[in-house]
Amino acid sequence: MTGSFALASALDELACALHINPASDLPFSAKPLRECYRVGAERFGWSRQTAEPCSMRDGRTLVGWGMATATYPAHMWPAKASASIRADGTALERSGSQDFGTGIYTVMTQIAAGALGMAVSKVTFELGDTGLPEAPASGGSQTVASVGPAVYAAAKAARAKQVQIAVEDTLSPRRSLAADDVIAVNGWLIGRNYSDMRESMVAMVKRHAAWARSACRW
Fold first, then answer.
1. Is residue 71 part of a domain?
2. Measured between alpha carbons, how far is 110 from 92 in angstroms, rounded to an integer?
3. CB within 8 A of 139, min separation 6: which ones?
4. What pLDDT does 148 receive?
5. Residue 40 has pLDDT above 60, yes or no
6. 209-213: which pairs have CB atoms within 8 A and are 24 or more residues apart?
7. DSSP assignments along 50-95, one per residue
8. Are residues 25 and 107 both part of a single domain?
9. For a Cys staple, 157 with which of 32, 52, 189, 216, CB 3.0–4.6 Å?
10. Across the chain, what does the average pLDDT equal?
């Protein structure tokens, strides 16, 4: 960031010396950032700003105005995860990642719970073991972007497998539905357009204990 400030300052001085505005009449993308600049400039009174360095003062105090945009890369590396739904209606998700205070336990539990259709309190996320599915090192804000999709995919696969078993189960109230017509909500498997066709995940998984012990990996 220190280097960015030096570069921006040098460009300001160059633009002033050449009597040009670097942003004038240049093509720009359609993203809303340009509109943010316009509204911000109006509210900030940007038109009153003078271009010459050190030309704005409040008494003996130099006044600096500036607007800038920064980008930060979202690094992504290969990652794997596994998910299993247990007979007691809870779920276990695993990935060989790590948490040194960045909240990975919390984030991954939330991602898994959302994909599984379970309450966060019903999901356990395990990490920190080289015997778990492979995950990259933490650094450069890459862990959520890398491990999150793997956790989500594994959880979705486990839920899809559970739903498929449910619609093929002759004892299930959703046996006449297609898999796409079944949704998972807060620990229940429910017919998308038939709310009365519901069953708790606990009841369904207990009938299929062998499947519950297996894990979906991604």
1. no
2. 12
3. none
4. 94
5. yes
6. 209/87, 211/161, 211/162, 211/165, 212/84, 212/85, 212/86, 212/87, 213/84
7. --STT--EETTEE-------------------EEEE-TTS-EEEE-
8. no
9. 216
10. 81
**What are the backbone dihedrals phi and psi of residue 102, each rounded to the nearest 5 degrees, phi first?**
-95, 0
Number of domains into which the chain is organized:
2
pTM of structure: 0.62
Domain contains 160: yes
- Taking the C-alpha atoms of residue 204 and residue 140, their distance in angstroms, rounded to an integer, is 42
Asked if the structure places residue 68 within a domain, the reply is no
In the numeric block, the tokens 């804000």 are attached to: 141
**Are residues 107 and 205 both part of a single domain?**
yes
- We report the CATH number of the domain holding residue 197 as 3.30.365.10
Q: How far is residue 46's CA from residue 187's CA, in Å, rounded to a whole number?
A: 54
| Structure confidence at residue 9 (pLDDT) | 84
Residues 144 and 105 in one domain: yes
The structure tokens listed for 148 are 């999150």
Please state whether beta strands 216-217 and 82-85 pair in parallel, antiparallel, or not at all (unpaired). Answer: antiparallel
pLDDT above 90: residue 8: no
Domain range spanning residue 203?
A: 82-217
